[in-house]
Amino acid sequence: MKSVDDFLVKHKLRASDIDIEELVKVFTEDMIAGLEGKEGALRMIPTYIEAENDFLKDTPVLAIDAGGTNFRAALITVKSSGEVLISDTINYRMPGLGGEISATEFFNTIADYLKPLANKVERIGFCFSYPTEILPDKDGRLIQFCKEVQAPEVEGMVIGKNLLKSLGSPEKRIVLLNDTVATLLAGKSASFGKSYDSYIGFILGTGTNTCYIENNSKILKKPYLDQNKSQIINIESGDFGRPPRQELDILFDNATLNPGSYKFEKMISGGYFGGLSLFVLKTAAKEGIFTEATSRALMDLKDVSTGEVNAFVSGDYANGRILSDIIEHQADIKASKLIIESLIDRASKLVAGSMSAVILKCGKGKSSDKPILITAEG
User: Fold this and answer.
1) How many other C-beta atoms can be found within 10 angstroms of the C-beta atom of residue 183?
2) Closest-CA residue to 249 (of 336, 144, 346)
3) Average pLDDT of 66-80?
4) Nearest 5°: CA angle at 103, between 99 and 104?
5) Which of 166, 181, 197, 289 is the most exposed, having the fewest neighbouring CB atoms within 10 Å of its CB?
6) Phi, psi of 376 (to 5 degrees)
7) pLDDT tens column, 204-260
8) Which of 167, 157, 206, 212 lies closest to 373, judged by CA?
9) How is residue 212 annotated by DSSP?
10) Contact, 251 vs 187, CB < 8 A?
11) How many CB atoms sit inside 10 A of residue 58's CB?
12) Cβ distance 277 to 300 under 8 Å?
């Protein structure tokens, strides 16, 4: 058996292999290029949502959340007192996860989920957690699906308009926003009475993304904007195209459904971390890190979820035993945990670097009495 430390050094899979200053520099360059509309940079999608606006009070709204795995909705009313009333909650599986579906199937499935709730309101807020070009009327055109959703016909379509059509209610008012933007606004809504210099929304769950508030004068690709105002920018940070990837990251990326896309997301997010961990463990098995029995069992294993990887390294056997059932030798257990924990540490440093770039680009929070509020969701 070979040394796990030598394996990690050889493949540069440690947090110490990440040059955080270089990461911040490159990430910032891509943010600026994205605001200028340059090809290949971060998307930096304008949302046309001003974080300074107040929330609609005492009016029921259908709130929809299309996430990486779950499709959820509920009726929400924010009272003048700040109290939030939630009712009629539903939770389904996101359409398109079980195989490719058509655009008609996609929108009709969602409409079937929502009709009992949509009939009770005139306003809809749709948290749509996929790369979407937000339009000035606050509807949005899907750029592409990620997180393994298979509905390619939907790409390029206007989401809200087509959903209202499937609901048979084209007159209703719908606002589309990203889950990261919703997270930023949730943090703002929960901070009544406190003073913050700015706000950042951060998602690290099935996928990953970040948003922040930018001056319109810096959004050079949209010169018609009011230069004296600001708005929330959806960075689409999971699609950061120049992360410090190593050979195994590239090989793992090539084995996913959308190779070459969302390279950063595939290094840190829950939708991919289980697969990345298994891929690295199999590579370690091929290179003689484990006993023969463990190596054979790992090579036969088809898939492992992020939750099951977490259960293995934390000893939470009630929530997953796939790895613990096949890795029984004490030396193999120690080595495999070291490999997974190294990937976790590396992911943590990648997150810290990207967040540092956003904070510095924001240019706010320079006084301790007015910090930046970062709201994070998983």
Assistant:
1) 23
2) 346
3) 87
4) 110
5) 197
6) -115, 140
7) 998 899 999 999 999 999 999 999 999 999 999 999 999 999 999 999 999 998 899
8) 212
9) E
10) no
11) 10
12) no
Contact 150, 87 (CB under 8 A): no
pLDDT in tens, 49-68: 887 766 678 899 999 998 76
Average pLDDT (168-187) is 91
First and final CA of the chain: distance in angstroms?
37
What's this model's pTM, rounded to 2 decimal places? 0.83
pLDDT at residue 184 greater than cutoff 70: yes
284-290: average pLDDT: 97
Q: Encoding tokens for residue 212?
A: 């922040």
Q: How deeply is 103 buried, as exposed, middle or buried, from its count of CB atoms within 10 A (0-12, 13-18, 19+)?
A: middle
Q: Please, are residues 290 and 338 in contact by the beta-carbon 8 Å criterion?
A: no
Nearest 10 degrees: CA dihedral of 301, 305, 307, 310?
A: 50
What the block records as the tokens of 120 is: 């009770």
**Burial label, 271 (beta-carbon count in 10 A; 0-12, 13-18, 19+):** buried
Structure tokens at 371: 């910090």
Alpha-carbon distance of 62 to 67, in angstroms, equals 16
Contacts with 330 (C-beta within 8 Å, 6 or more apart), sequence order: none
CA distance 299 to 263: 24
| Cβ neighbours of residue 280 closer than 8 Å, sequence gap 6 or more | 11, 13, 248, 252, 339, 343
| Residue tagged 């004490």 (tokens) | 330
In the predicted structure, residue 101 carries a pLDDT above the cut 90: no
**In 3D, which of 213, 204, 229, 237 has the Cα closest to residue 31?**
237
Identify whether the C-beta of residue 109 lies closer than 8 Å to the C-beta of residue 209.
Answer: no
Q: Token pair 């016909």 is at which residue?
A: 153
Q: Nearest to residue 87, comparing CAs of 79, 96, 97, 77?
A: 77
Q: Is 300 exposed, middle or buried (0-12, 13-18, 19+ CB in 10 A)?
A: exposed
What CA–CA distances, in Å, run from 56 to 53, 80, 172?
9, 9, 16
